[in-house]
Amino acid sequence: MSTAVLPAATSPAYEGSWRPDWPLDLRRALFPHQRSAGDPTLRYDAAGAAWRTTTTPEGPATVRITPVAREIRIAAWGPGAVWAGRQVPAWLGADDRPETFDPGTHPLVVRLHRTMPWLRLGRTGRIWDALVPAVLEQKVTVVEAHRVWRELLRLAGEPAPGPVPDGMRVIPSAQRVLDVTDWQWHRCGLDGARRRALRAVASVASRLEVADTYDSPALQRRLTSVPGIGVWTAAEVVQRALGDPDTVSVGDYHLKNIVGWSLAGRKTDDDGMLELLEPWRGHRHRVVRMLVAGGSAPPRRGPRNAPTNYRRI
């Protein structure tokens, strides 16, 4: 990866380029980090470049990631521009080791593995950025969680540094989250249980960020020691922040049935899902990503679950 740190008066503050050795699909690589098409932290422009905001140890940053032929060109703005710009290859999967994965003999997994050379598990190295949206997604519909995420960014997020697309924001700091009042949370549509969990993680956020010695089990133990944080939320965080190839989001409303229907042609529960995934232990989350992208789900026969509007309660 070639890089250049530019003078402070120059925009952008950081520029670099990198050439992946696999057929990178930028949108698919960043898909786990996007909360709806209107996500204020991740946008795409007409040229196909991704604009992503992030917190860093040095402060907020905006990164523009532009695919040009087989090269990725990186530009970044803000106090954390250098740190964030240098993390982009890891975001897109450069640290992943898919060569250690054995698809086994299940015909669907074998086929998906062969037809998805683009699949890499990225790691951001930022716990807080993954934890806040995961808390907002606890026990609610995706539509509802994404709406609250956008409302939170508009209410408390920092303006994104750089010449960004309109409306982009950086996730608010832990202190800013703690400063949000109950009535403001109510206007965002956040219920009491998720509000308490978010305040709990904000209170210990400085002690949760990734250290070089962290592994996924250790980080999950730290996360689940915080009131309101369970195994599902911890799994969602380590998948994104550490690029964990194995930890499965147990407790997900839909995931168990996607896995069950894809691998066995039937619905199942969480224990059944883990039993079906056991042959791929060490890469169970990788298999789940394959199945979500190319597997199947049981037909929907019941009424849709309408989101709860907590702003009217």
Provide structural commentary.
It is a single chain. This protein is of the alpha+beta class. Among the domains are: 2-96, TATA-Binding Protein; 127-229, Endonuclease III, domain 1 (Orthogonal Bundle). The protein is 40% helix and 12% strand. The chain has 13 helices and 8 strands. The chain has helices spanning 26-30, 81-92, 107-115, 127-136, 142-156, 174-179, 182-188, 192-203, 216-224, 231-241, 255-264, 270-277, 284-294; strands spanning 2-5, 14-18, 42-44, 50-54, 61-68, 71-77, 158-159, 169-170. The strands form 2 sheets. Strands 1-2-6-5-4-3 form a 6-stranded antiparallel sheet, covered by helices on one side. A hairpin with an 8-residue loop joins β1 (2-5) and β2 (14-18). α4 (127-136) runs antiparallel to α10 and α9 (216-224) crosses α10 (231-241). The longest helix is centred in the middle third of the chain and has 15 residues, at 142-156. The protein is globular and about 50 Å long. Residues 5-9 have low confidence and may be disordered. It comes from Geodermatophilus ruber. This is 3-methyladenine DNA glycosylase/8-oxoguanine DNA glycosylase.
